[in-house]
Amino acid sequence: MFSSEIKTLKSLNSHLLKLVERKLWLKVVIALFLGVGVGILMSPEMEWVPTTVSQIIGNWLALPGKLFLKLVQMIMIPLIFASIIRGIASNNQEQLKKMGLGVLVYFLFTTIISIIIGTAVSFIFKPGLLIHKVLESEHKTITSDIGTNTLPGLNDIPNLISELLPGNPLASMVTGEMLSIVIFTIIIGIAVTALSEKMLKPIMTLLSAIQEICMTVVKWAMKLVPLAVFGLMAQLSSSIGVNSLTGIGLYVAVVLLGLIILLIVYILIVSIVGKTNPFHFLKQIKDVQLLAFSTTSSAAVMPLSLKTAEDKLKITPSVSNFIIPIGATVNMDGTAIYQCVTTLFIAQAYGLEMSLLNIILVMVTIVAASIGTPSIPGGGVVILASVLQSVGIPTEGIVIIIGVERILGMFRTALNVTGDLTACIIFNKWHNKASEAEPLAGNAIESTKN
User: Fold this and answer.
1) How does pLDDT run across 145-194, given as a tens digit for each residue?
2) Residue 366 predicted with pLDDT over 70
3) Residue 196 burial class via C-beta count within 10 angstroms: exposed 0-12, middle 13-18, buried 19 and up
């Protein structure tokens, strides 16, 4: 019914594929290492550049990165609003009843697995302890100041859950409460499916236009990516020095280890549950993964994901058109691992002791926040700030990891889209079985009548 809107999404493939051909990812990696090199030359340990001058240069070098983040933050709400409603409204209510609950349970299940992986690797390797030694030597009072932060108790959870449903959606949009916005949008999307086709068509056309406008802004922002990475890494390296880079290197390694373990989980799901050759699966989706790695945006990759699912993985369009737009917004397993490791890393860096209840509350908060993370570059950092604040961990700690956030965003986004396509494999198999069962049931009824 809405094939024209889907074609509009797919028509963006030409531009997105050009990003791969132009080796944007290679430019980002080169910019990353150049930024670290320049930052080290300006760091206090080298004593080549006065500290005040280094700070001024660092701020100017970081300007493209700040502009990049502002651009993508600017369009996150309309992009989420348009993507979710179009994804839901492209299916009728019967399809939503059959597939919706199963998809929700599956996404929640894989997110919980991701949180467990992130928590496990964080407590085994404790990457924040190296940074804690540096902070303790430079800011001796920071641990005692942070110790006054209070983490939410068990009695606060009902209020936190009730506040997820926005009493004033416009206020949630202004304050950037992404999970509340996602819940509001899902409710509106389900309600939209009850409209007649005549009323629904102009709404879908408008949402398609909004989505394409947002994608245009994303394309503009992508041009700033190499400069943004170079500047942010130069500023980070110059401000924290060489010693802290060791701790950050361990933090990056722990996040990547968690993502590798998650990829193994996906491979097992595809081979065992989906009855699909995992190597064939990975070969077919390599272009999507590479583009996700380059753009760090599940939303920007959505057109190619749809095309890959239908053309290469042979996914039924009704399945891919439902799962991929929703998954690009709420299925953020790679981001969940990143947020979990980063939250515990910053807590360890600041010497914040966390009890078992505190850790459980952190995990619950991250599960909720990862579902509401916008599928755009920099979205993980925005949501991470709210996670840290909600569990009493200083949001200033984001500064420690902001320089490497970009490279981690590249890897976790590749895992996010892999998770969406894995879900397509699973539910396509279920959908095909259900389709085969319906004619059989109908034939049985007919033979009984005869």
Assistant:
1) 434 444 455 666 677 667 667 777 777 776 666 667 777 887 888 888 88
2) no
3) exposed
Confidence class for position 32, pLDDT limits 50, 70, 90: confident
d(C-alpha 36, C-alpha 242), whole Å: 10
Q: Reduced to 3 states, what is the DSSP secondary structure of residue 355?
A: coil
Give which of 189, 98, 16 is closest to 435, Cα–Cα.
98
Radius of gyration, CA atoms only, the chain: 23
CA dihedral sign, ordered 130, 133, 135, 138: negative
How far apart CA 422 and CA 96 sit, in angstroms, is 19
**Three-state SS sequence of 399-427:** HHHHHHHHHHHHHHHHHHHHHHHHHHHHH
Task: Give the C-alpha distances (Å, rounded to integers) separating 147 from 347, 352, 365.
Answer: 11, 6, 20
Amino acid at 359: I
Q: Is 378 left (phi over 0), alpha (psi -120 to 50) or beta?
A: left
**Exposed / middle / buried, residue 171 (Cβ in 10 Å: 0-12, 13-18, 19+):** exposed
Encode 239-269: b = buried (16+ Cβ within 10 Å), e = exposed: bbbeebbebbebbbebbbbbbebbbebbbeb
pTM of the model: 0.67
Q: Return the structure tokens found at 186.
A: 């899902």
Tokens 């902001």 belong to which residue? 402
Return d(Cα 302, Cα 149) in angstroms, integer: 40
Report which of 403, 343, 347, 399 is spatially closest to residue 132, judged by C-alpha positions.
Answer: 347
Q: What angle do CA 235, 125, 338 make, to 5 degrees?
A: 55
Q: Report which listed range, 309-313, 359-363, 397-401, is most confident.
A: 309-313
**Cα distance between residue 324 and residue 300, in whole Å:** 12
Question: Which fold would CATH assign to domain 3-436?
Answer: Proton glutamate symport protein (1.10.3860)
With both helix axes pointing from N to C terminus, report the angle between 76-89 and 317-330 in degrees, rounded to the nearest 10: 150
- Residue 207's identity, in one-letter code, is L
For the stretch 218-243, pLDDT in tens is 677 777 778 877 887 787 677 666 65
Record the tokens describing residue 2, joined without a space.
Answer: 């809405």
Q: How far apart are CA 236 and CA 255, in angstroms?
A: 19
